[in-house]
Structures are given as structure tokens and as C-alpha cells.
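Protein entry
_____________
===
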Amino acid sequence: MSAVALTRRTPALLIALALCLAAPVAGCGRDAPPSTLVGTTVFAPDEREPLPPVSGPTTDGDTVAVSDLLGRVVVLNSWASWCAPCRDEVPAFVAIAEQSDPAQVAVVGLDVSDDPAAAAAFEQDLGMTYPSIVDPEGSILATIPGVPPTAIPSTVVIDRDGRIAARIIGEADQQELSSIIAAVAAEPTTGSG
């Protein structure tokens, strides 16, 4: 093979290798190719799946059950202290939690596969005022429909009836997330959740 042929193929090989390596990091790979999962997906009300039970001890020792928050729009964000995109997106969740009426919108974290001391420091450093359920083995994250089992960060917006209205795989954008939350909060409840 000539050096010219190798040079022309090298970028394609590097891109393919990068995609293969990025897939596990992004958590992609449940049932669809990564390119169809990474990003934001908003579901019409008749296409929404119910969120399975999500509950457990929080990083501060309390207990949270998302089912106790029915009637509110719930933003459930998976994170870990070792995840750089998580660090970048947390200020958006803090702002949403602080700017939202707690009777209408709840932000809940899901601390996945993390060291407890590192998680506590992460929360303190970033001023996280909302609760985070501890998911040490990633078993809760693995049950969320449409979210790859290792997708950190990932976010689901749950409507007031307990159904998944939107999914974000990868770092969330505050403006986009706020827009989704406002649209879901404006929907009538069906009482079927």
C-alpha cells in the first residue's frame, strides 16, 4: 500500500475508531446505533412510556421516590463526579431548580457508579441544591426506557402523569431543556400516570 493510500484511509479509520471508542463512553448501544440515540428526543403524549419505579437513598441520606412527585414535571439527570460533561451541565440544572416553582417542577439527580466522597464534593463544588438518588451499580439507570444503560450524562423529562416526555443523551443545553420543561408543564394531565 502506498503512503498516499494510507494517508487517505487514515482519517476514515481514525473516525471509525473514535466512534467505536465513544460509544461506550456515551453509553450508547442498547438497541439502536449511537447516532440515533445521542441528542434530544421529544415524545408526543401518545408515544410516551411510563417511567419505571425510580427511588432510593440520596447522597445526603434522605430517600426520594420519583413516583411521589407525580403531578409535577420531573427532570431526572444522571451524573457522576468523574464525568466532565456532567460538570459542565450541572449549572443548568441548578438554575432550573432555583428558577422553577417547586410545586410544578422537580429536579432529581441520579448519581451513577460514583465514589460517595467524590460525589459529595462534586455536589458542594457545583452548588447542587436538588436531591440525587445514589445508583452505585447503575442498575436504576439501566431500567429507564430509551436510555442506554451507561449513558452518563443523560436526562429524561417526565410529564405530570409519570411518562417520559423527552430524553437527552449527552450534555443538556439549558435553553433547550427549559423550553421542553415549559412545553410539558403547559400540557393537561391525563390522570393515567
Summary: The mean pLDDT is 85. Residues 84 and 153 are 9 Å apart (CA to CA).
